[in-house]
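COMPLEX REQUEST
Ligand: 2-acetamido-2-deoxy-beta-D-glucopyranose
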Amino acid sequence: MAVIFGKTSWLAFNLGMLVGFFTIFLLLNNITNSFRTEAPLAIRSWEKNKHMALLQKFPHSHQPGSSKVSNDLSQKIRILCWIMTGPNNLNTKAIHLKYSWTRHCNVVLFMSSTSNDSFPTIGLGTKEGRDQLYWKTIRAFQYVHKNYVDQADWFFKADDDTYVVVENLRWMLSNYTSDQPLYFGKRFKPFAKQGYMSGGAGYVLSKEALNRFVEGFRTGVCKHTTSVEDLALGQCMEKMGVIAGDSRDTEKRETFHPFPPESHLTGHFDKSFWYWSYCFYPIVEGPQCCSDLAISFHYVDPTLMHMLEYYVYHLRPYGYNYRYQPELPEAAGRLPVHNKKKTTTEVTAMDKNKTSSQ
Ligand SMILES: *[C@@H]1O[C@H](CO)[C@@H](O)[C@H](O)[C@H]1NC(C)=O
Ligand SMILES: *[C@@H]1O[C@H](CO)[C@@H](O)[C@H](O)[C@H]1NC(C)=O
Ligand SMILES: *[C@@H]1O[C@H](CO)[C@@H](O)[C@H](O)[C@H]1NC(C)=O
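STATUS: Structure written out below.
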């Protein structure tokens, strides 16, 4: 009896172990797999566009009259945002920008090699691929200059994995006028006297800078010399007398960031990392890395994009006064006000023929 009982419990014990092992194996396998290969369920279904349109139904913008300062700025500092994307990225990346931060731009255009009327994207008639990046940038700015130059004061380029707080971009720009030959972004220092702006963090050209960029290519002063888009654009800017601006806040904290928030806030950049020799201004790691009025982060995946949109625009501590409250620069008071235009996704490639009636 005792022997049989012993045997049974031994068997049960082993069976239990086996089941346990198997369960844990399945669980771990599931977890690591989902981290490695697939976006969370919500994003996967959003990628299929099932729920994306719902985002449009939620009241995204703010209570009427409650955002007076940012509303006023949006009529003084009109920003056209154009997004560098491609046909394969529309449903996986670009769509998340379409339904998040780009809604805060005065005009938004998605630039691709081929046009897609349903997204919509503008076809630049280029090929796809990394080596095409500068051609796409040149064509995009030429297109914007030809069709939209009067509809905005500043012209912002971002990648389809860049997250931008457009209101903070307007605050930084409110210290300047768009007839000054200026451009701003995350400033790198090598290969050009005044440095150049990193591509991934996005960069913004004043109207005068845009005019000069297009003029540079018309006259042949600027040429397609390399596919390294951000450096090549910086070299053209320098030749055309466009000044590389300082976009740091009044406490000298950076506003444009070439990595996601976690890298700057909690990461540590290895001593041998190229970044150390590229940054124009001293690198600050940790909590002081980033302005409270940060403008952009790069390598933001779709999940983080929607999280940031929630953290930036909706989540807030009840009754709390923010620690950093810089004044609006004096110059902002003198900027002309433009009538409120329809914004963002309402403006599409189809609006091309309306520019003349403007
Ligand atoms: C246009 O974009 C949509 C995504 O919005 C995509 O589903 C569709 O296949 C694209 N059409 C073409 C012709 O590429
Ligand atoms: C405003 O621009 C001037 C240069 O024209 C600069 O010295 C100053 O630091 C800027 N202020 C802010 C808040 O960026
Ligand atoms: C051009 O604009 C007019 C009215 O503004 C509109 O009726 C027409 O359909 C537009 N054409 C295109 C190609 O969008």
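REMARKS: The chain has twelve helices and twelve strands. Residues 350, 353-354 surround 2-acetamido-2-deoxy-beta-D-glucopyranose (ligand 3) (CB under 6 Å).
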